[in-house]
Amino acid sequence: MSTLARRLGTTTHLSPLLHKARRLGLTAPRALQTLAVQRGCLHYQRGDEPVVELAAREQFSDEELALALLCVALPYDPHSIRCGAAMLGAKGNDPRRLARLAVMERSESVVRHVAEAGQRFEPQNEFWPALLTALPPSAPPKEGVLPHPTRFVAMTGVVRGKPPGLYTQWLRPEPRPMAA
């Protein structure tokens, strides 16, 4: 299977985050996607996720999960990229830490693509410009490889109590209690 790096026209590297994930029993990418759902990315739920969380946040943070899902060393899977985009926007994530992880994982262009989409759809959210500022400059990703920015949001034309129109909401995890 082709990696995201190969699709983007770059070289695949040995990912420290994916190595850590494997040590925790998170075989990529399916287990990473399952963990994202367990942490509240219900939009990407498949229905067969176990109730018990695969790894605690103390073992594998939301920032690490986001970058693991967006890692260019993963097999190419738009579903993983969309889950990673949702986890990237998780409340409480540190933009500087995300930028450091993006550099470590050689995924700066992927993270920048998602952050630019976030800034476009959530211009009032200070998180996105902070993340973009923390990232080093990078070339835009190869056209057509990454999901279209509209794949990172929910769009609707009708919202109760509002006039008809196009409403978008960034898809991000909604915290929920997990079984121990």
- For the largest sheet, list the strands in their spatial order: 1-2
Helical proportion?
40-55%
| Rounded Rg | 16 Å
Q: Helix tally?
A: 8
Elements, N to C (H/E): HHHHHHHHEE
Number of domains as seen in the coordinates:
1
What are the segments in which pLDDT stays under 50 over at least 5 consecutive residues? none
| Main sheet characteristics | 2 strands, antiparallel
Which structural class best describes the helix and strand composition? Answer: mainly alpha
Query: Which percent band covers the strand fraction?
Result: under 5%
Net shape: globular
Give a description of the structure.
By secondary structure, the protein is mainly alpha-helical. The protein has one domain. Helices cover 41% and strands 4% of the residues. It is built from 8 helices and 2 strands. It has helices at residues 4-8, 16-23, 30-38, 62-69, 78-88, 95-104, 108-121, 127-134; strands spanning 153-156, 167-170. The protein has a two-stranded antiparallel ribbon with strand order 1-2. The mean pLDDT is 92.
Quick synopsis:
By secondary structure, this protein is mainly alpha-helical. The chain is 41% helix and 4% strand.
